[in-house]
Amino acid sequence: MRRKVIAGNWKMNMLPDATIKFIEELTPLVKDKQSEIIICVPYTDLFYALMSAQNTNIKIGAQNMHWEESGAYTGEVSGQMLKAIGVEYVIIGHSERRQYFNETDESVNKKIKAAFENKLKPILCVGESLEQREAKKQDEVVTNQIKADLDGLTSEQVSNLIIAYEPIWAIGTGKTATTEDANNMAKTIRNKISDLYGQNIADKIIIQYGGSVKSSNSKELFETSDVDGALIGGASLKVDEFDKIIESVKE
Ligand code: PGA
User: Fold this and answer.
1) Is residue 126 a contact partner of residue 95, using CB atoms and an 8 Å limit?
2) Model confidence over 237-246: pLDDT tens digits?
């Protein structure tokens, strides 16, 4: 059976003191949990988060990285730099990065490759816009993203990847996809992975849902056949609420 992976995406929120407090409060609440618990924090919180999460079962991730190792890329941070301070995970291709920072499937693909080269585990975000869903193009859009974003990756790399299906229209809007829609898309993604890499890899890969996940809708989501966890934005900023979501995983 696949493990559940519950990841918080703090986006551009939280200062170092709040980060330390959050992890100190969350640690005893989740210490016996079987799920993998990840918090993806802003770059400026990474060091504090890593220090606070030492000797706990909370893993720390970044929210982006550059594909080059080093060089004249003012303002960027590389995979090598993240790995050097002990980061384990990195979100790649979040829709906000695709939308506001012109990330494309091509740059996402380069970043995923660079993440693996640096032994970081990428959380790849895919998802359709409202317009695409209304035109019933969501399966086509998402499977095309998967194909382009994973181009040239080995089966071993793909089996270590986490894919987060995040319909753009559900992010931060309070609108969630129905549990059935989320599970159907997770199945569609798993089938695509099976076509590209075989059933064995498809059975192993972790597929999360993201978009307005809260403690009031997480339990049902986690009971589906193909959704293996969640990538959580707004509801990951409050310890109580994030913990309730973690608690809603059946163990
Ligand atoms: P949300 O964000 O939970 O606030 O909708 C999810 C995400 O963007 O990862």
Assistant:
1) no
2) 999 999 999 9
Nearest to 38 by CA among 20, 48, 25, 26: 26
Average pLDDT over residues 152-164: 97
Cα(71) to centroid(ligand 1), Å: 32
Q: Could you say which of 66, 94, 103, 128 is catalytic?
A: 94
Q: Is 229 helix (H, G, I), strand (E, B) or coil?
A: strand
Task: Answer yes or no: pTM beyond 0.90.
Answer: yes
Q: At what angle do helices 16-30 and 43-52 cross, to 10 degrees?
A: 40
End-to-end CA distance of the chain: 12
Residue 49 Cα, ligand 1 centroid: separation in angstroms? 20
**Nearest-angstrom CA–CA distance, 190 and 144:** 13
Average pLDDT over residues 194-208: 97
Farthest CA pair distance, the chain: 48
Known catalytic residue at 66:
no
166 is catalytic: yes
What domains are there in the chain, each with its CATH number?
Answer: 5-247 (3.20.20.70)
Q: Is 171 in the pocket of ligand 1 (CB under 6 A)?
A: yes
